[in-house]
Design a protein that fits this description.
Layout lengths: L1 H35 L6 H16 L17 H12 L2 H12 L10 H8 L1
Helix pairs in contact: 1-2
Length: about 120
């Protein structure tokens, strides 16, 4: 039973790799020669580009998130920050809000608007 599941997963990975390779190859050959004057690529080169982009941009890591930033992994980090937030004085909360304001839209942690709504 387990062997059948492994074979299905391997087959699915192969099918996805072949489809992705053809998509990359056709997109490259359609766009890059016309836009940048580059040469057309083969299917093997397209697979190589996919692997290279995975190494350079995605890395090889487990996809099951365990307590990473921004509340990953069943809310462990989020619960930890909520506990810390509850133990802070108003002065410490304001200092934290001020520090978080400059971090941009996609930063982790409670926002000033959210934190103020939660205390009302």
């Amino acid at each position: 039973m387990r062997a059948v599941k492994v074979v299905k997963i391997v087959a699915l990975v192969i099918v996805i790799a072949v489809v992705a390779g053809f998509v990359v190859m056709h997109l490259w050959n359609w766009l890059m020669p016309a836009v940048f004057g580059l040469k057309a690529i083969t299917f093997a080169q397209a697979i190589g580009l996919l692997v290279l982009s995975k190494i350079l941009l995605g890395g090889f890591h487990k996809h099951g998130r365990r307590g990473g930033p921004c509340g990953g992994g069943r809310g462990g980090w989020k619960r930890h920050m909520e506990d810390r937030w509850g133990q802070m004085s108003e002065e410490e909360r304001e200092k934290f809000r001020t520090g978080m304001r400059g971090r941009g839209r996609w930063s982790c942690g409670p926002r000033a608007e959210t934190a103020e709504e939660g205390t009302k």
